[in-house]
Amino acid sequence: MPATVAQILAPYEYKPELVERIASRTVTPPITIVEPNPEWPQRFEQVKERIQNALGPLILDIAHAGSTSVPGLPAKDIIDVDLSLKDGMDEPSYVKSLEQAGFKFLLREPRWHQHRFFVENWPNAYHVNVHVWGPDSPEVARHRIFRDWLLKAPADLELYAKVKREAAEQTAVAGDSVMDYNQRKEKTIREILARAFRDLGYIE
Fold it and tell me: How far is Cα 128 from Cα 119, in angstroms, rounded to an integer?
């Protein structure tokens, strides 16, 4: 059953105590915003093929997510992937296969739509984030809505690009983490999503 409007509208509240750390990065990519790269879509397709070869029939959907999925939007040079599986809780069915395909299992958040998080584990790479979700995740729907709205709303694309650059600069100066960077963007993301939801008729 697809995510309901109520589920899509419910905001995600980050609770670090509910995050189960499996491993840590051996290389931490810098929080640097770069200009749009026309090769990002091709890089996603290559990653998609690797995941399809690794997991096959377990996959419900693979989507290019995050800022690199939006043409014309500056971003960190990292491909984000939303990977929807038949059962994200069934780790024995897919974790080893993803690791053999070159992705390192970093953490799980079972109460957040079965979320698991992997990163590319090639030497000095970490240019890919893979977010594993259970079926019909509202978070995947929100990612798609946000992307599609930015494609049709140039003013919000420009606003988001500005906020991303400012957040990256502030995070670098403070020596903070990527989670701090994300938190600095959160207010603007929610404002933009509200406009997207209103456009879809989800809110008045």
Answer: 6
The Cα 116–Cα 3 span in angstroms is: 19
Assess contact for 142 and 6: CB atoms under 8 A: no
Q: How far apart are alpha carbons 166 and 185 in whole angstroms?
A: 9
Q: Which residue has the tokens 């893979």?
A: 130
- Domains, in order of start, for the chain: 31-200 (3.30.460.10)
pLDDT value for 41: 97
> Which residues are paired to 117 by β-bridges?
107, 131
**pTM confidence score:** 0.93
Report the distance separating Cα 204 and Cα 192, nearest Å.
Answer: 14
Q: Which amino acid is at 195?
A: R
Predicted pLDDT of residue 11: 77
Provide the phi-psi class of 126: left if phi over 0, else alpha when psi is between -120 and 50, else beta: left
Closest CA to 40 of 16, 15, 74: 74
- Average pLDDT of adjacent 10-residue blocks, the chain of 204 residues: 87 81 79 95 96 98 98 96 97 97 94 93 74 96 97 98 97 91 95 97 94
CA angle 59, 136, 151 (to 5 degrees): 95
pLDDT at 16: 78
3-state SS, residue 67: helix
